[in-house]
Amino acid sequence: MLIVLPPSETKAWGGDGPALDVEKLSFPSLNPVRRELLRIVSGMTDVQARKSLGLSEKQLDEAAANRELLTSPTMPAILRYTGVLYDALDAPTLPAPALDRLVIGSALFGLVRATDQIPHYRLSGGSKLPRSTKTMKARWGARITRVLSAESGLIVDLRSGTYQQLGPVPGAVTVRVEKNGKVVSHFNKHYRGLVARELAIVASGITSTDDVIRILAEAGIELKKRSDDQLCLEI
């Protein structure tokens, strides 16, 4: 089983890993797009970064970090991303086999495994790069879909809509968190983190949507089946 997580806008700074080595990232078929995006993003001026990435004057340290993408220190991707979902996931307490089941969607890298070493960066799935009419979806095309579809076993796709669009996975199990029939952003992220944690720890024997429902019920998370591949948590 593979659990696909969304990235986060906020990321930890620093790291003690070596500079980015694209050749060491998982899913090497994504490298051509990665290299092109790294070239463009690391070459942005402050003015371009403010326009393309929606940065304020106080966030220009993000633009500076992008210019150092190829030389700045790295850390495991699962520790680089921060925020509500990653707080609930509590990756530092997960056993190694659980980390092996986690993959993170990324506008810059397409997909990375939890232990892939990546630098601090700023780029989102909706970013419009300078001097280009190409969307992030168009840049990634069907590459992410092909990579995920080639994985064996069940895929639980917990990415947000923007990142699912970068590489849809037909048949993947999805989870919505709703209140009164509407998706709630903050709790959506929190519960997705809890869902990812429980599934990553157990994993063995999870081959269907019904297995997902059963395992999470045992952990006190009650899901309703909306369809063969869509589950809903009502809070």
UniProtKB/TrEMBL annotation:
- The source's superkingdom equals Bacteria
Query: Which Gene Ontology cellular-component terms appear in the entry?
Result: cytosol
Give the source species: Corynebacterium kalinowskii
Which InterPro entries is this protein grouped with?
YaaA (IPR005583)
Protein name per its UniProtKB record: Peroxide stress protein YaaA
Q: Name one Pfam family in it.
A: H2O2_YaaD
**What biological process terms from GO does the record include?**
response to hydroperoxide
